[in-house]
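== Sequence, structure tokens ==
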Amino acid sequence: MTTTATPPADGAGERKSLTPAMLAALWTVSNGRCYAPGCPHPVVFEVRPGEFKKNAQVAHIYGVRPGARRYRRDLPAEVRDSFENLLLLCLAHHEEVDSKEAGGHRGAA
């Protein structure tokens, strides 16, 4: 017996480029903090006097790739990379979320 896989939704698995304005808005509304509840880590920190480093990545609330735990096939492609489906997570929390999703191996949100 052969099974036919259901094709992914339009645009599934394709990450879109984020505009500079969208990235600026994400960093601004984060108020300098990771979106993970109770996370004490700033999204930017000073590594030495006057030198700063980002400590965050843009993450998808609902996954981009089919098979991801947070993937929703019913989510239209234009919503997948919309501002409403994005947030900033510190590097540790982004890794934690993606690792859980991929069964212990880093996968993309």
